[in-house]
Write a structure and sequence with these properties.
Blueprint (H helix, E strand, L loop, with lengths): L6 E7 L6 H13 L3 E8 L3 H35 L8 H6 L8 H12 L2 H4 L6 H9 L2 H5 L5 E8 L5 E5 L5 H7 L9 E3 L2 E5 L10 H5 L4 E5 L13 H33 L11 E5 L2 H4 L12 H22 L45
Parallel strand pairs: 1-2, 1-7, 2-3, 7-8
Antiparallel strand pairs: 3-4, 3-6, 5-6
Helix pairs in contact: 1-2, 1-12, 2-6
Length: 368
Amino acid sequence: MRAHHEKRINLALQGGGAHGAFTWGVVASLFEDYRLWIDAISRTTARAITALIKTQGMYQAQDEGARHALHEFWRAVSKAGQSSPIQRGPLDVLTGNWSLDRSPGYLFFDIMQRIASPYDVNPFDLNPLRDLVEKHVNFKKVRGAHDLGIFISATNVETGLARVFHRDEISIDVVMASACLPFLYQAVEIDGDYYWDGGYMGNPPIVPFFQGSHADDIAIIQINPIFREGVPKRARDILDRVNEITFNSALMHELRAIDHITKLVQSGDLNRADHREMRLHLIEARKRMRPLGASSKLNTEWKFLRHLFDIGRDAAEQWLDKHYDCIGTRSSLDVGSLFPTHVPSGKPRKRKAAPSKGGAPSSGKKSA
């Protein structure tokens, strides 16, 4: 950590398609705060690209270079998306709805991924994201950024286990493996093994910080909501909620374990010399992100990406204003609050009255 930085922290970045522009805003704000030293970054899926470009920019021209590099990458993503058949319809544009649920291109694409595999419809495994990454990321410079720990995870298709790649191992194949959604792209081969998206087994992985970083604070940049009120009824909504739960499950297990160990250390049941106490923090914007449908993760309109960037920047600035003093002293995240035992809506659930013996519904009143 350099002399002019007051505190050090690790960043754990969740994945989420175009919603990663939210992470872009958060990361930009945190890197610009000269009180903070970012010790290490852990990520999965396309969020790995955001961090790699940020690292490369810092290597080249400090913060100004990093800001420019990220802006250019996301601008290129938007331009590439202009030729996609998956676009918002005129009504959605008029009403300000960022969702693609009514896009004919999106609906066709959604049906195709359910009935055909990428090995059938994309036999040459064409991936425009790969071309963008190769153009905007200099992996030699990223691997040479020794001041920053970098961890990228991918899921081994055959074993079902996560593999965490460290900075010295990072390549274009590692990034593509980390972002490989199996319904869209063929599995990526690395050293004779095949990998899918790292989010299935860690979104993002937390454990690497214990041995790969000197910082005891972890800030999780969350995109996928853990809690969502109401039971989905439409097939598309059910699948979206299943994906949210799936991509959050590994993270939830890690947070529970870290929180449990921390409490045992604080109570004296575990020796502090043998067990590291990590402080947890969460940067999110659930109220502003939750209304965005899952289909909007494929919306690469520049206006939408900038909108997400602004949300991310606001979320980071608000978190710093409220919790900066917690860094280095205590967790600002109450892990228990992520696992409510009831629906925290503040509204009592309505229950149907039990039928009476005669078959008619009862009045719901108790007899004396």
